[in-house]
Amino acid sequence: MKIIKQVGILFGICWISLAVEAVLPIPLPASVTGLVLLLLCLASGLIKIHHIQEKADFLLGNMAFFFVPAGVSIIRYFDVLRSAAIPIGVICLVTTVLTFGATAWSVQLTVRLMKKRERKQTGK
Amino acid sequence: MMSELLESPYFGISLSILAYALGTALNRKLRTPACNPLLIAIVLVLGVLLVFRIPYEAYNAGGEIISLFLAPATACLAVGIYSKRAILKQYWLPILVGSATGSLTSMASVYGMCRLFGLEDALTASLLPKSVTTPIAVSIAESAGGMAPITVVAVIVTGILGAILAPAMIRLFGIQDPVAAGLAIGACSHAVGTSKAVEIGEIEGAMSGLAIGVCGVMTVVLSLLLF
Hints:
The complex is a heterodimer. By secondary structure, chain A is an all-alpha fold. Chain A has helices spanning 2-23, 30-44, 49-61, 68-72, 78-123. The longest helix of chain A is centred in the C-terminal third of the chain and has 46 residues, at 78-123. The termini of chain A are far apart. Chain B folds into 2 domains: 2-68, no CATH class; 77-226, no CATH class. Classes of the chains: A mainly alpha, B mainly alpha. At the A-B interface, helix 1, helix 2, helix 3, helix 4 and helix 5 of A face helix 2, helix 3, helix 4, helix 5 and helix 6 of B.
């Protein structure tokens, strides 16, 4: 019964998210709405972690598995992939390195500025 | 008789689980991010469908049921963010700045390169969100007119590249701060990269895990502004 309740809570949130998606004027994906809703429920104490712990561990721990069918449906897009495989590969490689560099440097800069400010404040 | 059996949802579900179990076992044995369990599972299922000439629709009777779990799994990313709220509070500014920079750089560089290669719009839309975790990337691609399966493959390839290249990129960019390294790994290569970040260090792992959720939400917001 415990697991059934947890499934109920999470599936319920997903169903409410679909309703929110239908009402909202912006195209916010229902799965992301679900993430935000659950975060709000946790932060407000409406749902406690132990209410969903086992089900969440199951879903998060096996996250990749749930994408097997989505990946297999590439069978319908073989033509597109064959003609653009090289550009897609190059794009993935270059943008991954760029994103890493930009993120790491911006974080290092922010941390450095924060430390400088802290030192100034304590130095007063 | 045979086709009836193949059209049962049990077939697609069992085949997927078997393929994924083999992928996980292989990954454990070889211990390299290049052997991503999801990638191996997809290739195995594709192989079975092509070799035995099983129609995709028959497999998908079971596939649809597995896909049903994607939305609740995405929602559960909230549990990860919530349980790390102590680090989130301490480093909220660097996390926010890094995630915003990372998400923006990723989308802008993908868009620019797609234009450079003259890729069609549907393909560009499929690749745009490729640095974030699969469920969020797929949702963004779909609402932008992209092809979800292409997104799934691009996300996995990006994750594997990030995991393999992470140590080299840390040296290349001269990153000393573990907070910066962790956030950068999570921002460019989501959960697959995070599995490598956890090996590099505890702070790197936690930061990378946090970046998955924050960058995901950030990329959704950016894509709402763009489309």
